Amino acid sequence: MQTITRTLTASAHVAVAVRLKDPERETVARRNLAEAQIADAIDRALATAPALNPRQIKTLSALLRTRGQR
Q1: Measuring CA to CA, how many Å separate 2 from each of 31, 35, 54, 55?
Q2: Mean predicted confidence (pLDDT) in 36-46
Q3: What is the pTM of this model?
């Protein structure tokens, strides 16, 4: 499963950064982990949902661009 690998890999990078006590590397790793988790959630939702119409896609894209602040 790609989604499991994506999240586990990102999580491992966070762990390495924490162990190395590298704040800059940890910040990047945590950002990448958040991306992986969001992508996994989207993948799971789209796997079971009917196709979205263009308006719905635009709404969801706007949520990502604005960090959920409408």
Answers
A1: 19, 14, 26, 28
A2: 91
A3: 0.79
